[in-house]
Amino acid sequence: MSVLWTAADAAAATGGVTGEWQASGISIDTRTLRPGDLFVALTDVRDGHDFVAAALEKGAAAALVSRVPEGCDPGRLLLVPEVLPALEALGRAGRARTGARVLAITGSVGKTSTKDMAVAALQELPTGPAGVHAAEASLNNHWGVPLTLARMPRDTSYAVLEIGMNHPGEIEPLARMARPHVALITTVAAAHLEAFASIDEIAVEKAAIFRGLEPAGIAVLPEGLAVTPILREGAANAEVRSFGHRGDNRLIAAEARAGQTEVQAQIGGRPITFSLASVGEHFALNAVGVLAALDALGVDPLQAAAGLANWRPYAGRGAIEGLAGVTLLDDSYNSNPASLSAGLAMLARLPGARRIAILGDMLELGPDEIAMHAAMAGDPAMASVDLVHACGPRMRALLDALPPAKRGIWAEDAAELRARAGDLARTGDIVLIKGSKSSRVASVVDALRQARQSPPSHEQG
């Protein structure tokens, strides 16, 4: 097992005091900790110091702490004044010691799927999977980014990082920590409007990722948005490349076939064709953004495109599965107006006896949230939807705005809708499930599986 951090290197990076040990990984959760990991005692919902003894018993090499938990061997502790700043320092040191080419991704929609596309493309290069390091799942916040950097092996060839935000001022410090050679914005849309006065303000915050670029770094941004000029202004000190439906990096065509999308694109003026294992023009457009970013990173886009066929959407992010006669489009991880519109467009592209949308509330939309829910009744793809079931007080506004023939079951919450899973679909239907994470509409996915008496066809975590 290779050594990720020695005690001496970790102490030098953090300024901490410790004994002698070597760590092969880093963990913040005793449930997934592996022997040899350095356990980081973060304080979030629970105080990580309460789990240090258990981590050491499970084989952790050491623990990063700000106090000595009772009964723990001080020689197996890396003692620092504060744990989160020490993790940040470890992340900066991990970034500084590698020669990896770094791509950082942000955006209102599609960060994780775009990050995973980039990883799939890079893993087809001669360096292979071992040369590619990336954020696990959606580790994109104030502790997820430094954790990802601290986990990066010294000999990494390419790193792909995801940077998210909920409030103003969050992106720039994470981008400066990541020091990307290329930064990509997927799109800017109505999300987290409780913390921002307008989409323009969201664009300013997203463009802050460009302030972390390395010298001679390249900004890749979406063309054709109302806020594209704001993004360009934010990238004024970098070389700018764009992607969209026109220009040197553009989507020419995206045709859905048997649950896949056949894509024709142009990257850097070169024609490229590739396949994606899901449907939806938004996936195809994000793939064009990935190829534009990898081209900027110095990767041959033709070679990278071959790896895109290996990408699979995570469960909850557009994965398609069969449930004993029903086709499930599981896009239940999160929702906002832009991603719901994309989800409805995916549903409209797929064949079925009936197209059914099961929708939970979209959250963090600010004072106009009810009007924004009702406005989704006018989405162009809604014309192809036969029936809408919904849960939550906000989604009631959408249901009321639909023609009576499209109105299905409405429930106060996901638990009530879950209890009626057997009434939501019948054989031959294709079903989209989508809602914000806190709406808990994802629980309806499992209820529908159980109602159809079929296990999921595949699991991706």
Automatic annotation (TrEMBL):
The UniProt record lists the keyword Ligase: yes
Subcellular localization, as worded in the UniProt entry: Cytoplasm
PANTHER family: UDP-N-ACETYLMURAMOYL-TRIPEPTIDE--D-ALANYL-D-ALANINE LIGASE
Mur ligase C-terminal domain segment(s): 323-436
Keywords: ATP-binding, Cell cycle, Cell division, Cell shape, Cell wall biogenesis/degradation, Cytoplasm, Ligase, Nucleotide-binding, Peptidoglycan synthesis
UniProt pathway annotation: Cell wall biogenesis; peptidoglycan biosynthesis
GO molecular function, one term: UDP-N-acetylmuramoylalanyl-D-glutamyl-2,6-diaminopimelate-D-alanyl-D-alanine ligase activity
InterPro entries per record: Mur-like_cat_sf, Mur_ligase_C, Mur_ligase_C_dom_sf, Mur_ligase_cen, Mur_ligase_N, MurCDEF_CellWall_CoF430Synth, MurE/MurF_N, UDP-N-AcMur_synth
Gene transcribed to yield this protein: murF
Role according to the record: Involved in cell wall formation. Catalyzes the final step in the synthesis of UDP-N-acetylmuramoyl-pentapeptide, the precursor of murein.
EC number: 6.3.2.10
GO biological process: cell division; cell wall organization; peptidoglycan biosynthetic process; regulation of cell shape
Lineage top rank: taxon: Bacteria
Reactions that this protein is recorded to catalyse: D-alanyl-D-alanine + UDP-N-acetyl-alpha-D-muramoyl-L-alanyl-gamma-D-glutamyl-meso-2,6-diaminopimelate + ATP = UDP-N-acetyl-alpha-D-muramoyl-L-alanyl-gamma-D-glutamyl-meso-2,6-diaminopimeloyl-D-alanyl-D-alanine + ADP + phosphate + H(+)
CC per GO annotation: cytoplasm
Sequence intervals crossing the membrane: none
Domain called Mur ligase N-terminal catalytic: residue spans: 24-67
Similarity remark: Belongs to the MurCDEF family. MurF subfamily.
Domain named Mur ligase central: residues: 105-293
Enzyme class: ligase
Binding site for ATP: 107-113
Organism of derivation: Paracoccus suum
Phylogenetic classification of the source organism: Bacteria, Pseudomonadati, Pseudomonadota, Alphaproteobacteria, Rhodobacterales
Protein name: UDP-N-acetylmuramoyl-tripeptide--D-alanyl-D-alanine ligase
